[in-house]
């Protein structure tokens, strides 16, 4: 990048960040934001390990805390030409202190690459608000910032539980394997010194993909966890239902599903039984495997009408687009790329059967913005069960969030949405992410007030609802 | 929703509603809007029954006037968990007075659900401007508002014709079945005391869908209406052409078409004859039926080049997504959901043949915003016959309208568009809908002026054209 | 259009054109724009013939200079009902002076049709800045403007080289046929009096489409140009590699590819050999031809990793949508219409093999905006080889550019983009196009500053980078 004198090398956070530029609209937005800024955080979907809170061990170092768990950050550094191995990405890749400091320097030296990205907003919030960093990241400031963070991480008030208190996170949902014993969740629930609600989420994706080479092994694990014989389709279904109940008993409020598409269909029992038998024998055809997975999504909905778990769908990702990266660094290492998705036809069989079922909740997320106004909002504006989920992943960013509100509100209003979902493993960024959302909603509502589409008292009530009753209603919290 | 004190329980309409928030841009927008605000309304596509105007009977009650004919309203109430039967939706579902009042209370109690939706804008305009309601709808104000409206409806100045005068609706198009005798239209045209132009629209959808179970019966009805034997394909085509001429003779300016897609193709005569014979014998295959429908769309274009009717296309809706709702309440009861649509390839055969035909007009509407910039604007920016239709249905809302202008103008300008189309059966909301459009176009043009893309005199001329010559040209009025 | 008094019949260009309306944001944008306004132009992809600069002959007349080479302009006039033959469009269609004046009158009389389009912005910039026209185009002013331009074109300072100096175009890329001998480029490079860099671009589309009826003839031409026998697949590949090297030796930095889709796949050698043999024998099946074309795109990538040419993809156009227009006026005469495009799955085979290859650059352009946030930005935010290309063709317009930045920056930042590409044959509009881009980027960055997402020094650096290091890095200049 062009070399220029940097008149401002300080990191300072304006109180007006992300609020609309127009002075009149900003004044309204400030008042709306002030009303929600300090509301406790409800995080009904995310990826923080419960173990972090159960163990309450200090975080290791700045890089393994802030870089290697954040795929938004390391993927863009990778695009800048930095190999993932230098960033501590992937299983077993805990860099030593030198490696961590090196990774941190690489990141700070590429701070400009993050201009205009939400990672920039989240990271500067973490640096300034959590660690009191006052210097803008750069090659020059990297070591000093690293040392300041590393020093803080050694102190008790930077342990996970202390931060959870400081962040005022009332509810935190994790994402868990169906055979997980949820012992960390149980430990937290039984810990009288821990007052936050940490709930598991039932995430059965791989147990619903009969084409996986490890499907027979997964079925064996499922049988062991449920003590139900999964040698037959009926046993498979019963075992899944059993694990859902186990999760529910441990506080779960939702199941989460992320397949390539959301096509649904219903197989008759004989057909499902036949395909399942082929699958555990390792000889299922791709077509049959897909059919059974689509059928099982309907089964999940059926179970939801019985056990009451909210169903969330996160479809439309081509996982592991770059084979070599996945092979070397494992899944979720930056090369997952969205594809188009279709909800209207795909979900019709499921919604035809359960769309108006008492108590059924189905929250739709997407990486394909085209369905916000075309499919998700119209579905959420008719079916009592359907909620428009918050902007997800690449779309959880200021302009995308504005597009989401502009694309869904006119058809579904504010009250058919799920509320904000941070969906992150980057624990320290959770307040920054919710703060971003609150600022953006304040700005959106302020515009409606400035354009006389809403009165300010209504906007204020809506802003508060969006961080209180809206998520607690959608997620049954 | 969170309970809060309501500092403002009044319903007041700002003169600046929907105008841009930036003061400089708003000042320009005010001037542009002032120039078009009181222009007569041209409504070239809608769903008001001609009978309402022919009979000029008083409207029944607030609910059957404002709720049950408005699928935007009742679908969102349904999503809020209110059963449709409590809202008087569906054929034969005229609630008694108690039912109407109950429905009205349900609606007013859920007023917050409509925040940020166009229904909110339209409804508050109707309440305040048409009925002089000064209270914001709520559970508390519901009865008083109901009584005020009910009282007004008993007065002569709230009958359909009086309102049509008050609303200054110069042209109103209805939508009609090809076998309709158009007697109400004829009565209005012969009524010397009625000075408005009420024109029918030829809507042959179901007569072009050979896969329908009732297709043979429809062909019988078509034969009776046209006095042409529809026992053969040639007769079928002749009968349709005859009914188009009948509509034209009764003032029609357009035919309207809404199928799942807009794929077109040309069958040779033998093939069309064969498929048609299968269809009236009740043994047509789905593939053949689709092929004949696609062929008939080209036939409609061919007839349009002969009789001069403008052709409008409204594709891409999955009708009756929720089977049980359709079964119980009939069609158009809220569960119609958009799907993706494709124009470029689909219309190529039709446009290759008639795209530059003298006098042919083809207006394209969509619920799939992705085609605005990708397909519709490029088509309308080349073919003299193609016009970009106004934002339709779910997209007829402030932010969507802004997106429409932003997505089409740069490629097609303002003069390859159709002008505003209200497309509504909610008679009382027609002025509010046109007013919304005028405010939004004023705001869009004002921004172009503020950014020095246009001079204000050009913007003023354009704003006027958009409510005068643009629709009269596109619709041949 | 409605007849109105025209209070302003002058053509004046505000210094604030296209800058944001909000005064605070505009003040920032002015500062950013001031810093880049006079930077030299880098034009790494376009369609100006090198011969114009080599010959330095005077331009003919206003119409053949400003109308007939500009498909944006003549297609919208065609949509207004003006036959292409009256506009001098198509091969061999150089109108005489009377024809040129007539075409110019038609254009000026329809000036209103261009309101809100980028053609309006470009044309008024050319008229005012290049020719000093002070009257707004209209039927009345047409002749005077024509005469002013025609007069200027006769003067030495309006010859191509003089204009290139005046426009400060440092680098200009042309687009060339693989068998072109590039003699004009060679002449320019050897001309000590010509200090600009004019580089060819290798555009092999038709040589990669085995289904073309003229494919055998094209192979013969390729053989002649390369002196390599193209009678076999191996020879075909070798000849293409040879021509790429020839282009590279003549200064080329990139190859450009525009097919209907960007699906890629790898054939084994035997299969490629078989299909190629069928193709030169004129008996290739459509499926095989498509497969070979998709395979050859991967071959182009492989060659790029060897010769270092940057690869640019411009997919998703249905060429010659109106057969009769293409037949009468040739290709590129206005009826090319976009279709949807898919990158994630289509490019996976290519990127799986070369996505992280050292030095490989792949720049993705699109006419389908939906892929900006869904596919292009996520790809460019992971693969070091992938760059998000500037908004292309219909999308090279103010609001579309803003949507592009809003859709890509949050995922890919500014530094994974290609910089602006004017892609034009309208030589005189090149400065206007780059100026538009600079104004829009200044406005976008100013908003980020106004919303406290960036500090102004960072925005200033970014604005400068976007017209200097960003294009030189992406295009290896």
Explain what you see.
The structure is a homotrimer of 477-residue chains. With 477 residues, the first copy, chain A, is an alpha/beta fold. The first copy, chain A, folds into two domains: 60-158, uronate isomerase, domain 2, chain A, CATH 1.10.2020.10; 160-474, TIM Barrel. Chain A is built from 20 helices and nine strands. In chain A, the strands form three sheets. A four-stranded parallel β-sheet of chain A has the order 4-5-8-9, covered by helices on one side. In chain A, helix 1 (23-36) crosses helix 19 (456-466) and helix 6 (118-130) crosses helix 18 (430-450). The longest helix of chain A is centred in the middle third of the chain and has 22 residues, at 286-307. Chains in contact: A-B, A-C, B-C. Chains A and C meet through helix 4, helix 6, helix 14, strand 7 and helix 17 of A and helix 15, helix 16, helix 17, helix 18 and helix 19 of C.
List the helices and strands and how they pair.
Three copies of one chain form a homotrimer.
Chain A: H1 23-36, E1 41-43, H2 50-55, H3 62-66, H4 71-79, H5 97-109, H6 118-130, H7 142-153, H8 160-167, E2 169-173, H9 183-190, E3 197-199, H10 215-226, H11 233-249, E4 254-257, H12 269-280, H13 286-307, E5 310-313, E6 317-318, H14 323-329, E7 337-338, H15 348-354, E8 362-364, H16 370-380, E9 386-388, H17 398-412, H18 430-450, H19 456-466, H20 469-474
Parallel strand pairs in A: 1-2, 2-3, 4-5, 5-8, 8-9
Antiparallel strand pairs in A: 6-7
Helix pairs in contact in A: 1-18, 1-19, 6-18, 10-11, 12-13, 16-17, 17-18, 18-19
